[in-house]
Automatic annotation (TrEMBL):
Belongs to the peptidase S10 family. GO terms for molecular function: serine-type carboxypeptidase activity. Keywords: Carboxypeptidase, Hydrolase, Membrane, Protease, Transmembrane, Transmembrane helix. Its EC number is 3.4.16.-. It comes from Steinernema glaseri. This is Carboxypeptidase. The chain crosses the membrane at residues 51-68. One of its GO terms (biological process) is proteolysis.
Amino acid sequence: MSTRLIGGVTPIHNKSLQGAGPRKFGYIKGAEEVLAGQSLDRRLTRHCTMGVARFAVLVALVALFAIASQGEEIKSLPGVGFELNFKHYSGFFKVSDNHLLHYWFVESQNNPAKDPLLFWFNGGPGCSSLDGLLNEMGPYLANQDGKTLHENPNSWNKLASIVYIESPAGVGYSYSTDGNTTTNDDLTSLENYEAVKLFFKEFPAFRNHSTFIMGESYGGVYVPTLTARIVDGQKDFPINLKGMALGNGYVNEKLNIDTSIRFAYGHGIIDEKTWNTLESECCKGCIDSCDFTQVTGHCARMVEDIFQFLWAGGLNPYDLYRDCDPNPDVNSLRLQSMLMGIAPKHASQHTLRYPKKAHFKFPLMGASVPCLNDSDLVTYMNDVKVRQALNIPFNLPKWDICSEQITRDYQKQYTDMKPFIKKIVDAHVRVLLYYGDTDMACNFMMGQQFANGLGYRRLLNKTPWKFDRQIAGFKTLYDGVTFITIRGAGHMAPQWRAPQMYYAIQQFLLNHPI
């Protein structure tokens, strides 16, 4: 289901004196929209003059602006069964004439006046960053009942204050006032940059904090393109940018295709007969240097068949060793978004024959396997009291974890993040690439080859890193770049290996070895 608006929404409307996010005078079209849709002039002229009425309107607008400039604090969050020791906010950043991005900001539980500041982006493209907040590393996590939240002992806001931004417009509660949500990599990075700048204007006390940009999956495009913009804009809008981190980031389309085939063989999914056929008939007898994006004819069809099985053959693309949700009624928009967004469709003019905007059709299963049940989070986010607490305009449509329309219409412009990440590293901004090693969507081999291909001097060859006296993964250090795997974690490493990821992020923020 799409979160695109039909007909547009006025940011300040007749039921949202409390909500709708940070607001400026330019957002407000009249006093009628401030006071429950009734003309303030008509109300006041019963008791006073028109001049007094207009003065009262001005006072109301000034007061409203003063409140908005402090952000929209969440006074009481439904379903929280434990005491909160931090402030949190929810509102909107007006990043263009027609686009407003929803944010949810949680201050640090430790020392918000000094702790680092993180901006977090989930991917898709078309999926909500609130998945990160409420399923992965936030202070409160959704319960299966869809009504309550439980405390996360490994919340990253014990280390830093975190801003979760739903991007681009049309995702989650972010919206467009004219209904147009078509976007691309450049426009998304530009609007994300505007959101970052607006955050610092709304919360100026955080302006000088050490700042980190982080994300996951197709955030592997969102985050480097945004961080590169911040680097380029330092003269005009200085930000104390210290680092960038990607979790199972989609950083190179060609590598993702090539390594997915090798990952499948290495994990026993491809048999010897198929592998030998690929080598002898498709790779000129040398499969180690084979480019699977350039094969043609029956070789291309073999590659397509392998991908069809990886993505819809009954395995969990997010975690090879994690079972899919068996409930046939589950409709996972997250998986649909991944299938349309990250799954290769047009890697070259020869390979993977699916047209750019076509829906996948899978002969193996007849329908896509849900795998991940997001109904608890969807139910919680659409609760009327939750929407009110988050200052969501009443006439925005229902929230979904992913928007099929955004994914379908999204125009991917970049297939390789190398130029962006090199610009970032060369600006002396530290980079962490972390990959759960059982993920098939954005596998660790892609990240490993990508990190090595950046060309920076290697400081430490691949070696284990430990947590709680156990091997938690492997690390390779380069000059400016750290690459790590998280053993036994899939696509959402902070969710499935929470203590290990908490430790790794803590070390990265402190600029200490992992």
